[in-house]
Amino acid sequence: MQTSIISYPRIGANRELKFAIEKYFKKQSSKEELLECAKSLRARHWSEIKEAGIDFIPSNDFSFYDNVLDTAVLFNIISKRYKALNLDPLEEYFAQSRGYQGEKGDTTALAMKKWFNTNYHYLVPECDDAELIALSGDKIFKEYLEAKEQGIESKPVLIGIFTLFKLIAFKDEATQKLAQKKLLKAYIELFEKLNSLGVKWLELDEPYLVYDLEPKDLELFEEFYKELLTHKKNLKILLQSYFGDLRDIYPKLLNYDFDGLGLDFVEGKQSLALVQKYGFAKDKILFAGLINGKNIYANDYAKSLKLVKELQKYTQNIVLNTSCSLLHVPYSTEFESRLDSTYLKLFAFAKQKLKELKDLKEILNSSEENPLFKANQELFKNIPNRLDESVKARLKSLKKEDFVRQPEFKERIQIQKDFLKLPLLPTTTIGSFPQSADVRSNRLAFKQQKISAQNYTEFNQQKIKECLQIQEEIGLDVLVHGEFERNDMVEYFGENLQGFLFTQNGWVQSYGTRCVKPPVIWGDVSRTKPITLSWSKFAQSLSQKIVKGMLTGPVTILNWSFPREDISLKESTEQIALAIRDEVLDLENAGIKIIQIDEAALREKLPLRKSDWHSEYLDWAIPAFNLVHSGVKATTQIHTHMCYSEFNDILKEIDALDADVISFEASRSNLELLDTLKAVHFKTQVGPGVYDIHSPRVPSEEEIQATLEKILSKLPKEQIWINPDCGLKTRAYEEVIASLKNLVSATQKIREKL
Ligand code: GLN
Ligand code: ZN
What separation in Å is there between the alpha carbon of 127 and the centre of ligand 1? Predict the structure, then answer.
């Protein structure tokens, strides 16, 4: 019995990589320093994995920004707009990641999308000239050799040809067609090169296989792999899937010449049934993903052993594996000094999961008498309390009406128009303003009890004052208080609700250098006191204009936390919805006229298979949002915000959230969505983000004006709001002020024309 992991977190135990890259971005360190840091992190990770006793150690799982982009670069899939800048390769790489504005030109970043059903975001490769596709990078080889120098025969990990091809944005069909041939050729070249280096195993990640596959997808897969596998020679190929099961292709896969097949037994609901039904292949190794790569709870060895024993009925060639990359969990519990050990011992982050794999291997090689097994079973006795009777009772008493807002949209939007008296094309922002160093250190000082509550509050109030002043000067219509009291839109609410636990160092990469620290939902959730009320009241008292109340919605709080596994997601979300509902009503009572309830992560737990969308998710997620705002008056305007534009396929459901206004990310994806909004008679007012806040680039007035014109050509002007595509917390004030000034003046110019 051997062990493997799919990938390891690359950001570093203490986010070293994040800080090194950001320092480099700020020109405070050299390229050499950055490369050196990366190298030492890789070395550290490899030796950690080796010391933990893992047999298949991944390489090429490192990345400076994103591993999909790395793969695109490996095969020279780089849009002309970056090539034209004539930058050094690392700079070109970062130009694709973050956009470029400088002496060599001006261009936006690649579109960013959610990586399957995770909170990781990948960059969408752009292919405008398929002729250029060829094996041209060397990262994968260099990292393999680097590990080798360290005495480690690693298993390079790469996005598979099928998944990569499906994720690329092609200029047109002809390009796509040619790319199919060229890409196949490039992977063949890759196989040759890996062979010449003496690489033993290559892991090809093909998560796209867990979606619903169309006949043409299956054909494409076959066209790729039937040919590709004839070139593998001495190289062993592990086809790795994750985030679901392979129900549409499994029996076929057994006949392919893969040497290993990686199945996910955590999220793959049918994985076991597939093996039971179709058996396994004698010539292959089953990489059994049984350690959850997405949640932080300790593995129950009894369950895992039972699964392995069941699998052993079908094959003896089993490698114990994680269910997906460990990128999606924090690094190690060893840095958690505040969390009580009664909880902490029930957690397993990436490093602890290595040990779990090794434990299971040892137990399987001995017996259940093994003390490792006994110690694990001890963990699950005497678990701290999770139950709150009053929460359960409140949930039980809910009626149908509690999920429906009255009066209906058409009627109340008129009422709001008269009441709010906003200009045409109202301008606003998404909520947060720059979290400058002083804001963060004030919060930290308060947390560490180095300053009094009064000092802390006064500082933030001063910030709010300045923030409102800036917005008034810029001339925005609906203002925000800036969210200076929040570390993170989910963690903040978690910290103020009963039922959550927090880590100190539980960082998980979200995109590029951005990491989030998801709270842990441990017990039943309730609100014991108002959370945002005093900040919102204070902010509103300073301005004649409307200042939006700013909340995070229940689905997002759930989706960006580590969820419980002992009750359903539905029940957990409804508990959170009731807590946020109380906050909404308190804000309304205090005279807040517009309340934004962010559902940045609504799409995140949408099942990858369409057939499961409603039954497993939307049928409770949408009502949970309704429950939050159904109690407000007709005059109170409810906004929501989403961090992506991919909702073409769930437009009806998004309209059914029954918010009055929704803002969403649109600038990076060229406003394609607008056509569909029009086609389905989307009722909710919309604020398609008119510029990209994930990049430091300042959009010009003309550029925004052009965007506005495009929006206006697609949607009635009464339905439109003007805003950036997300909160401004990660940006610097200069960028923000310059960009928003252009946003407001562009809007004014357009208004004059109308
Ligand atoms: N209101 C939040 C902010 O502006 C929304 C952030 C998000 O959507 N990720 O920061
Ligand atoms: Zn957002």
Answer: 31
Nearest-CA residue for ligand 1 atom 8 is: 600
Atom of ligand 1 nearest to the CA of 430: 4
Please give all residues whose beta carbon lies within 6 A of any atom in ligand 1, as ranges. Answer: 430-432, 483, 489, 550, 598, 600, 641, 643, 726-727, 729
| Alpha carbon nearest to ligand 1 atom 1, residue | 431
DSSP assignment letter at 129: -
Residue with tokens 């002496």: 103
| CB contact at 8 A, 747 and 723 | no
In contact, 320 and 262? CB cutoff 8 Å: no
Which ligand is the nearest neighbour of the Cα of 731?
A: 1
Residue ID of nearest Cα to ligand 1 atom 5: 727
Ligand 1: residue whose CA is nearest its atom 6: 727
Å from CA of 571 to ligand 1 middle? 25
- Give the mutation target among 489, 644, 645 for probing the ligand 1 site: most ligand atoms within 8 A of CB: 489
| Global pTM value | 0.91
Instruction: Tell how far the Cα of 419 is from the centroid of ligand 1, in angstroms.
Output: 26
List the one residue out of 506, 493, 482 whose CA is nearest residue 553.
Answer: 493
Ligand nearest to the CA of 430: 1
Check if the beta carbon of residue 144 is closer than 8 Å to that of residue 156: yes
- pLDDT at position 382 is 86
**Res 676: pLDDT:** 87
Please give the positions annotated as active site: 694
CA dist 706 to 115, 670, 690, Å?
30, 12, 10
pLDDT, tens digit, for every residue of 139-154? Answer: 999 999 999 999 999 9
**In sequence order, which residues have a C-beta less than 8 Å from that of residue 719 and are 6 or more positions away?**
685, 686
Q: How does pLDDT run across 533-546, given as a tens digit for each residue? A: 999 999 999 999 99
Q: Can you give the pLDDT at residue 145?
A: 98
Using alpha carbons, select from 543, 446, 521 the residue that is nearest to residue 486: 446
Is the link from the previous residue into 207 a cis peptide, with omega within 30 of 0? no
Are the C-beta atoms of 235 and 196 separated by less than 8 Å?
no
Residue 595: strand pairing partners:
549, 638
C-alpha to C-alpha distance for 616 and 625, rounded to whole angstroms = 16
Distance CA 138, CA 449 (A): 50
* pLDDT of res. 114: 87
CB atoms within 10 A of CB 702: 11
Give the per-residue pLDDT at 373.
97
602 C-alpha vs ligand 2 centroid, how far in Å? 11
Nearest CA to ligand 1 atom 3: 727
Coil/strand/helix, residue 754: coil
| Cα 470 to Cα 79: distance, rounded to the nearest angstrom | 38
Cβ-contact 658, 634 below 8 angstroms: no
Ligand 1 atom showing the smallest separation from residue 642 Cα: 8
Q: Are 359 and 372 in contact (CB under 8 A)?
A: yes
Query: In terms of C-beta distances under 8 Å and separation of at least 24 residues, what long-range contacts does 107-111 make, across chains too?
Result: 107/81, 107/82, 108/667, 108/668, 108/692, 108/695, 108/697, 109/668, 109/692, 109/694, 109/695, 110/69, 110/79, 110/668, 111/169, 111/668, 111/669
pLDDT attached to residue 646:
76
Q: Do residues 227 and 256 make contact, with C-beta atoms less than 8 angstroms apart?
A: no
Residues of the chain with pLDDT under 50: none
Tokens 């058996």 identify what position? 279
Tokens of 674: 């607008």
Task: Tell me, in angstroms, the distance from the centre of ligand 1 to residue 193's CA.
Answer: 45
Cα-only R_g, the chain: 26
Contacts of 355-358 with C-beta under 8 Å, sequence gap 24+, read 355/52, 356/291, 356/298, 356/299, 356/301, 357/3, 357/4, 357/5, 357/52, 357/53, 357/54, 357/291, 357/320, 357/321, 357/322, 358/3, 358/52, 358/53, 358/54
* Beta-bridge partners for 56: 4
